[in-house]
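Can anyone check this?
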Amino acid sequence: MSDTTSPDSNPSDAADAASASLPRQMAAMTRALLQSPTRHVLGLLTAGIIIVVVVTAYGQVRLNRWNRPFYDALSHREFHGFLVQLGVFGVIAGSLLILNVAQEWLNQMLTLKLREGLMDDLLRIWLTPRRAFQLAHAGPIGVNPDQRMHEDALHLTQLSATLSIGLLQATVLLAAFVNVLWGISQGFALRLGHVTLSIPGYMVWAAVVYAGSASLLSYRVGRGLITRNAQRYAREADLRFSLVRVNEHIDSIALAAGEAQEDRRIRVNLAAVLAAMRRLVAGLTNLTWVTAGYGWFTIVAPIIAAAPLYFTGSLSFGGLMMAAGAFSQVQSSLRWFVDNFSTIADWRATLLRVAVFRRAALDTAQINRSESRIEAVEGPPGKLILDHLHVTCPDGGVKLAESTLELKAGDRALIVGTPGSGKTVLFRALAGLWPWGSGRIVRPKGESILYLPNRSYLPPGTLRDVLAYPASGEQFDDAKCTRALERVGLTHLSGSLQEARDWNSALGDDEQRSLALARAVLHQPRWLILDEALHSIERAMLPRIVDIFTKELQQTGLLHIAGSEADDPLKSRVLHLVADPAARRLQRPRLDEASGRPVMRLSA
């Protein structure tokens, strides 16, 4: 297939998406948090932070005013006044210390609750039935959802709490100390020869010009960091996925002596990570020239700004220190953007990844509507009907040679297809995971259907939990679980029902297939649909399977998809899966990693 639009065709796509949709992404995140169970606690924490920040700002204003009497006492050598002001300082500093500790606790609790609320929203969306599967087949955006919801969501909540509190504090301090600076310099007049130039609030304007120039220069130098951070996170996710994949399949890799090939693949991903990091290092280095340069000059900038007032006699030495302190607070508040630009770029890139992933998960229904869909309806109990079912695949389409299949409770049917004929796609269509195609699937209303793939999922937990999945293990007593294990030849596991292990590693392939069949014995579903689940079972096991379907599962309707008739000892009717010559290849949009929007992918 070829793309009419490629997600990677323009390196600035991520930046364009970031700048264009920032308000919408922030609004979506806010709505998600307001709908989460933590919204009331978040409201209380936010109110507490606002109160603490405002009181802290008042304390810092009082501390700034303390500079005048303290330094005046020093300049006049007044020892008693010096001791009094030390006592005042102790009270103010002690109060500010308590407020600092309270603010840190509120900051950490806000981060915790933000993560809880965001994860609740992302998990609810992602694990909506069939959505995670559809998202996994929606293009690059569906790759590595674990990193988006774990590392990216954690990083986003940490940065959001830190930056929002910092911005609030900078805003409150700016409002408080602008009044102080204005009061100090409201009558300032500059004499240039015979001309007197009056500049009310001179120090306020000096702070604005100083911080404004730093902010503008920082933005121009560091704006590319958003794209570079986003690219780095994407490449880190690719590397992590490669490492996890090798770890999961290390047995097969070792047997095939494929370590060298996997090493080359991982090194390609590592090289992409390092290249992205080098671009990020270059951007941060350039930004440091600006931030560090202004940082060093800030040591003397407040004194230089206040010096005209001091040398004209408008300020005492204590007043000079007070003015310098107020100037530092104002320009520090105005420079908040400069000091946090790299962090803001990191936050913006992380917000982009989380918000786009969330949007993509919600928009999977949109990409599903781009092609004709199989009609899935509920019908009368006791019947499973496939009516003129055609399944559209990326390489064409498949259908049943027989136009209609009607199964009644207790019937056995086998669908035979050659390797690569689309058996797994048909199985997914019957389960409702693959909606593209035409025709109808009529499922019996109110009756349970159990789908068993070629290799069943074994969740972490006790053997009882694995056996009862997706139900809770507490729903079945020991006798029923033990009986199910005995019926499939796993008697040696009956004493391990309460044991929690990695059962994927602990059990061999045959044992895992038998355990999946034991799950069917335990649940006794009304209908059972298999995807070559009997294909690799030992021949000695077949009589036991026949006995199970003769007794425990006698009333269970069975539809088995397999490669040949020899794979099924239970068949009473055989159907054939064939290519559909009239079908066209699947044409549907996928979701772009940079924006989460559908991107049309057309057939070659």
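Reply from J.R.: I decoded it. The chain has 20 helices and 17 strands.
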